[in-house]
TrEMBL record:
InterPro entries: Iso_Racemase_Enz_sf, MaiA/AMDase. It comes from Streptomyces mooreae. The lineage of its organism: Bacteria, Bacillati, Actinomycetota, Actinomycetes, Kitasatosporales. This is Decarboxylase. Gene3D superfamilies: 3.40.50.12500. PANTHER family: BLR3294 PROTEIN.
């Protein structure tokens, strides 16, 4: 059959993505991308370190990022994004800006990071007080809060799992439980950190239940990258992507009505969850005793 009359595939815009070596959610990133955009992913080199501040620093070294950007430039993307939250907040606001500059210099292309995209998204929806959910240990979660504070964002409550590996296996139900525990006061929005934590399908549910915009690491990364090239990310019932959703229940912030946790006995601004991996180096999970029979695999929760 002669198909020469078709003229070839339709032109595609390209988004380059630099991800950590253990990133496992390629298909989730694609769900925010319209049909006329292609993602081009590359990964940082493997290092034998569990998820920690040390790992965040290793996968965000300028030499590593520049090599990845140069590889991606072979396919001429219109924008390049570093898809790692901890790797882009570990050195603070100045460190994040320096990463963007190093990437842009290496590829002569617009470059951004997940943590920079988060601040951009919070400004877009007018949020300055947020609840935070992470799969990290306490020390990494603390570093995220420090970064947000530098950017003028107040953390009103938080919850974390204390995981050091296998984050992509965390089921949606655990993300929902953490979100309910974190939103204990008057927050403008909820942020779910870590690009390796599945979030796409849970965002609409949480926005409807919590009555506030819900942002996630992968969502803001793709939103900012696509916006940089004049393309709108796709995603049903997500306040960041759809201004109409912001005028609905998702726009009702904690300052307008009691937050989901305010009526709960013993609600605190921070919660950590038993049953996940114990924090390394003796870090205690705030407010909880360790489970009586911890699982043998301390790396994370089982897949769905």
């Amino acid at each position: 059959m002669d198909v020469s009359f078709l003229g070839g595939p339709q032109p595609q815009l390209g988004v380059g993505v630099v991800a950590p070596f253990d990133f496992a959610l390629d298909r989730e990133l694609w769900r925010w991308v319209p049909d006329d955009v292609s993602l081009h992913l590359t990964r940082t080199p493997f290092v034998p370190v569990e998820v920690s501040l040390d790992l965040a620093r290793l996968v965000s070294e300028h030499e590593t990022l520049q090599a990845a950007v140069q590889a991606l430039c072979a396919v001429s993307p219109q924008v390049i994004s570093y898809a790692c939250t901890s790797g882009s907040f570990v050195a603070g606001v100045a460190g994040e800006r320096a990463m963007c500059a190093a990437m842009a210099q290496a590829g002569e292309v617009v470059s951004l990071t997940t943590s920079g995209a988060l601040i951009e998204a919070l400004r877009e929806i007018g949020a300055r007080r947020i609840a935070v959910v992470t799969p990290y240990t306490k020390s990494v979660t603390d570093s995220l809060e420090d970064y947000l504070g530098e950017a003028g964002i107040t953390v009103t409550g938080r919850a974390y799992l204390g995981l050091t590996r296998h984050i992509w296996k965390v089921p949606y139900r655990d993300v929902v439980d953490m979100a309910r525990a974190a939103v204990v006061g008057s927050a403008d929005a909820l942020f779910i950190s870590c690009t390796n934590l599945p979030t796409y399908d849970v965002i609409p549910q949480l926005e409807a239940e919590l009555r506030m915009p819900v942002l996630s690491a992968n969502q803001v990364t793709m939103w900012a990258a696509l916006r940089a090239i004049g393309v709108q990310a796709v995603g049903p019932y997500q306040a960041l992507l759809d201004p109409v959703a912001r005028r609905g229940p998702a726009a009702m912030t904690g300052s307008e009505q009691a937050g989901p946790g305010e009526g709960l006995t013993g609600a605190t601004p921070e919660a950590a969850f038993a049953g996940s991996a114990p924090a390394p180096d003796g870090e205690a999970l705030d407010g909880l005793e360790p489970p009586p029979c911890p699982p043998e695999d301390t790396g994370g929760l089982p897949p769905v």
